[in-house]
Amino acid sequence: MTGALWRIFLRDCALLVPGGRGGGSLLPLLFFLAVAMLYPFAVGPDAPLLARTGGGVVWVAALLAAILPLDRLIAPDLERGFFDQWALRGIAEEAVMAVRIVAHWLSFGPLLMLAALPAAALLGIDGSTLRTVELGLLAGTPGLAAIGVLIAALTASLRSGAALAGLLLIPLAVPILIFGAGSLSTGGESGLALTAAISLVLLAITPFAAGGAIRAARD
Amino acid sequence: MQATLPQPAITVTDLACRRGDRLLFRGLHFAVGPGEALHLAGPNGIGKSSLIRMLAGLLRPFAGTVTREGTIALLDERPALDPYLPLGKALDFWSRLDGAQSAHAGEISERLGLTHLLDVPVRYLSTGQTKRAALARLAGQQANTWLLDEPLNGLDRNAVATVEALVADHCAAGGTAIIASHQPFMLAELARFELERYAP
């Protein structure tokens, strides 16, 4: 089964990672950078204000960028019968979901952390705040990836799933946002630790919840 | 191709199926052993596809049990092939996952007339070609039991004969096949199962 899961992981990566064959796109990254670029135009060239609020904007942009690929995450494979074929081969839905969380994170997490560097320059964020933002993203984006897979699995069999997915993500992502962005104002390690803790809880729950959603979609 | 099993590959006991608030069939009993083939016949909406999914273990029976021996392969209306990949690569994903030998996969592709299509992305294939591609995926799995839901849909006469020969070889090698189809399926010693008799 490990070999089979490795094959599925390679396919997931080819599907989701930008430049891959499945049209995995740079859209989340471009969206993220667009927000960082537009924000200074919207609030005006007030450097202290930008520096103070910039970190929060980076977080909101990261959260919204993570929503963009949700409609391609689970629904196409469900429609094409991949999940049924894996089930016939005795590959648990939970394992497939765990693999997909990793692939989904790889498709946007590292890129967002990289894009946070030019975003920080655009918003005039200083070095120590940038460090907190980067650490926060490292702790928070795996949780966002887990939420994404969970919601995509829950809404995969619904007709207007994509619209619902966007709405569902917001309440689930709020804890990550509160502690992730909150660590900026307190500057403390505790916010980062709590962000990481929420991410871990989500990572632990999601494979089972998403796997259950796929099985329920069969009836 | 596969080891012969002493006991029935699929045994169905007192099976009933309900979709929504409608009972489709009940009191179903049958057993299909190695080397045997069964044709599930009946008009549209009688529950053939639901029965196939129950036999595959993908749909929970409303009542009764299904016992399976050995591995199961399923062909339904969804090919489970990545549409933007060339056919060869899309089939490769499954043959690697199943750990099949590439020689065997090549042989199946040739038999189903897919060799010249291996470079064509799956989304450009016609209905019949996609069906043949899905059959290649199914045969490549080398499972004991084949569950075929309308395997002849969209196929021309030559392809129908090929599929019938493929199923015949599978059964001759000790495999089991259950075919749900409203079309006639030509196979020596094909038992026929009229699902209509079990409708409430």
Quantity of strands of chain B, as a count: 8
**Can you give the mean pLDDT of chain B?**
89
The sequence of SSEs of chain B as H and E is EEEHEEHHHEHEE
- Helix content bin of chain A: over 70%
List the quaternary state of the chains.
heterodimer
Describe this entry's structure for a reader:
- The mean pLDDT of chain A is 88.
- Chain A contains 9 helices and no strands.
- Chain A has one domain (2-217).
- With 219 residues, chain A is mostly helical.
- In chain A, helix 7 packs antiparallel against helix 8 (161-186).
- With 200 residues, chain B is α/β, with parallel strands linked by helices.
- Chain B is built from 5 helices and 8 strands, in the order βββαββαααβαββ.
- In chain B, the strands form 2 sheets. Chain B has a 5-stranded parallel β-sheet, with helices on both faces. A 3-stranded antiparallel β-sheet of chain B has the order 2-1-4, with helices on one face.
- The longest helix of chain B has 16 residues, at 157-172.
- Chain B is globular, with a radius of gyration of 17 Å.
- Chains A and B meet through helix 1 and helix 5 of A and strand 5 and helix 2 of B.
Furnish the topology, listing elements before pairings.
The complex is a heterodimer of chains A (219) and B (200).
Chain A: H1 2-16, H2 27-43, H3 47-67, H4 75-79, H5 82-88, H6 93-123, H7 127-155, H8 161-186, H9 189-217
Chain B: E1 10-19, E2 22-32, E3 37-41, H1 48-56, E4 63-68, E5 72-75, H2 87-98, H3 102-111, H4 127-140, E6 145-149, H5 157-172, E7 176-180, E8 190-194
Parallel strand pairs in B: 3-7, 3-8, 5-6, 6-7
Antiparallel strand pairs in B: 1-2, 1-4
In short:
With 219 residues, chain A is mainly alpha-helical. Chain A has helices at residues 2-16, 27-43, 47-67, 75-79, 82-88, 93-123, 127-155, 161-186, 189-217. Chain A has one domain (2-217).
